[in-house]
Specification:
four-stranded mixed β-sheet, 9 helices, 297 residues, alpha+beta
Length: 297
């Protein structure tokens, strides 16, 4: 079974005079949108992490945030006045633009918020220390990503069980529709014969062959054999998809559309309250399945 698009993982660590926390989460999405919020001064971090996420996720909206702050034993030369001035100026510019351009009053920025932005030259680290720090963060992220994958796999397994039950219900209702259709074949044939006799008796000059042809067409239009066969075929295809390990959400979504199409046709051909009831039950189950499929990667 494929994974769920919804997932979450977090992690914390410390080193090189800093502490950090990871926040990785994803939600449903038609495509794949990966957004990273990482410290700019940690060289090579985004270039290393983005490909890992690209490989791990097939689709969905993914957000990764890394928050860094100095710990009590922080290394380096402390706050760089020039960098701090630039940070404060940027914050002021954003607040002014939000207020004057959009009428938005942003929440006040705290000292902790500013410190989290690391207003130091390269975070207070030398070039070699920054590269080493980046390597530590990359290794720590692997643990976060592993937890993220495990959660999505667990969610996917649970989704698989729900979908399997719903597909079984569709299969049972389809078989029930086939049984009902066969049971009413005799009644359908008698009705057509009675209608044919009634038309011929009340239509002087009508071509009997043409009337019979029109009634035969009506008979074909009321036959649901093709719809039953296609529904069974879609059930088999959906079952097979649930056994695959790769992303199958798009294919399952397509199949639910086919389920809806065939069920609508079946309902339009229903000439008994029993068949109509079966069609409505099918629609209800298919709609429930469609909602669950939206969570599948």
């Amino acid at each position: 079974m494929t994974k769920s698009m919804t997932g979450f993982a977090s992690g914390t660590g410390s080193g090189h005079g800093s502490t950090w926390s990871w926040d990785l989460r994803s939600v449903n999405g038609r495509g794949k949108d990966i957004r990273l919020r990482l410290p700019d001064w940690v060289d090579g971090l985004e270039a290393a992490l983005r490909p890992k996420l690209q490989k791990a996720v097939a689709r969905g909206n993914v957000n990764l945030t890394l928050r860094l702050s100095k710990d009590a034993s922080g290394q380096g030369d402390g706050i760089d006045p020039d960098v701090l001035a630039g940070v404060l100026a940027s914050i002021q510019q954003i607040e002014d633009a939000a207020l004057n351009g959009y009428g938005l009053q942003l929440a006040p920025t705290t000292a902790a918020d500013i410190l989290a932005l690391q207003p130091t030259a390269s975070g207070g680290l030398t070039e070699s220390e920054t590269k080493e720090f980046s390597a530590i963060l990359q290794a720590d992220f692997d643990n976060v990503l592993s937890g993220f994958d495990s959660m999505r796999a667990s969610e996917g397994a649970a989704l698989g069980k729900v979908l399997d039950t719903q597909i079984d219900a569709i299969s049972d209702l389809t078989s029930k529709a086939a049984t009902e259709s066969q049971a009413r074949q005799g009644d359908t044939a008698r009705n057509l014969q009675e209608n044919l006799a009634r038309v011929l008796n009340n239509s002087e000059g009508a071509d009997p062959d043409r009337v019979a042809q029109e009634l035969a067409i009506l008979s074909l239009k009321s036959d649901i054999t093709e719809e039953i066969d296609r529904l069974h075929a879609h059930v088999a295809a959906a079952k097979a998809l649930l056994q695959e390990s790769g992303p199958v959400g798009r294919k399952l979504d397509f199949l639910t559309q086919e389920f809806v199409r065939e069920t609508n046709t079946l309902c339009s051909k229903a000439h008994s309250k029993e068949m109509t009831s079966i069609g409505l039950d099918l629609k209800a189950v298919i709609e429930q399945m469609r909602e669950q499929v939206q969570n599948v990667e």
